[in-house]
Amino acid sequence: MHFDSWSAFWAMGGYGFYVWLAFGVSGVALVLLIVQSVRARRHLQKSWQTEQARKQRIAASRARQQSNSKLAEEVD
């Protein structure tokens, strides 16, 4: 579509308000989606790291329990 001037471009044949409103709403929605996705990814990474640390603590605790029970058997 060809416009004679910038004001004609912004007016969009009388539908400029609706056109630019649609662009604005779409832009805001996309920005919010990006922000939400970044936050969700950070939360997921923190949850994963917490779970990995928990698994390591459990494994270390089991290893200590096994070594303690072996020492107790050797003493008896």
TrEMBL record:
The keyword Transmembrane applies. The chain crosses the membrane at residues 15-35. InterPro entries: Haem_export_protD_CcmD, Heme_exporter_D. Keywords: Cell inner membrane, Cell membrane, Cytochrome c-type biogenesis, Membrane, Transmembrane, Transmembrane helix, Transport. It is found in: Cell inner membrane. GO terms for biological process: cytochrome c biosynthetic process; cytochrome complex assembly; heme transport. Belongs to the CcmD/CycX/HelD family. PANTHER family: HEME EXPORTER PROTEIN D. This is Heme exporter protein D.
